[in-house]
Amino acid sequence: MNKPQILVVEDDMAVGNLIATTLETQNYQYHRAKNGAGAVMDALSYRPDVVLLDLGLPDMDGVEVIRKIRAWSNMPIIVVSARSEDTDKVAALDAGADDYLTKPFSVEELLARLRVALRRVRYDSGKTSEEAATYENGALKIDYAAGCAYRGGAEIHLTPIEYKLLCLLAKNTGKVLTHNFILKEVWGSASASDTPSLRVFMATLRKKLEADPSHPQYIQTHIGVGYRMLRQKPECGRDG
């Protein structure tokens, strides 16, 4: 199997060196860019599996880099930034970033986020048109053609809104979806006044989907930002 290719976009030499050393220890191949223009060109030239992107670049804001890459590619982009405000996270995720890691970060967390992104790459590349008609994630199965969802073989009775929410999260497994993005995709418009309704629908969906809604396995909340569908390990058996 080819080694994953990572594009590291970071103008801080110390942070860039830390990330590079971390990638080397895990046998990842990487290329470094120190500004936004270089990042866009390298993304085009090297077609990396994942982009690790700082937002505070010397020539352009990292959010603009995300928009430029998203104009032609769906490659996973993980933001690694000192900006910790929810508004900054929402802006980056709405522009198309897959995940957001705040500096200072632990090496273990960086590698965990990277593994999630690479699993999505492998899952997306391994899908066939036949497989795309259904979705499986642990005990969860969605039959898109029939418009039905199942957990452990038993059908989950969902309202139309709950089903649309579940499908949206499933089709973006591993990616943080902001409140605004979900509202636009499911309701057709995004307004802050609609966010409480989204929370209510998400709570009812969790009750039907999760074995223990207080400790969710599937739908992860990012407070003030949005939600993410987590990838589960394949079931070895119905009781496994």
TrEMBL record:
Under the heading SUPFAM superfamilies, the entry gives: CheY-like (SSF52172)
The cellular location(s) given in this protein's UniProt record come to: Cytoplasm
Q: Which GO BP terms sit in this record?
A: positive regulation of DNA-templated transcription
Residue(s) carrying 4-aspartylphosphate: 54
What is the recorded name of this protein? Stage 0 sporulation protein A homolog
Indicate the residues that the entry says bind DNA: 132-231
Q: Where is the OmpR/PhoB-type domain?
A: 132-231
Q: Does the keyword Transcription regulation apply?
A: yes
What cellular component terms from Gene Ontology apply here?
Answer: cytosol; protein-DNA complex
Response regulatory domain: which residues?
Answer: 5-118
**Which keywords does this Swiss-Prot/TrEMBL entry list?**
Cytoplasm, DNA-binding, Phosphoprotein, Transcription, Transcription regulation, Two-component regulatory system
According to its UniProt entry, the function of this protein is described as: May play the central regulatory role in sporulation. It may be an element of the effector pathway responsible for the activation of sporulation genes in response to nutritional stress. Spo0A may act in concert with spo0H (a sigma factor) to control the expression of some genes that are critical to the sporulation process.
Which Pfam families does this one have? Response_reg, Trans_reg_C
Entry GO MF terms: cis-regulatory region sequence-specific DNA binding; identical protein binding; phosphorelay response regulator activity
Q: Which SMART domains match?
A: REC, Trans_reg_C
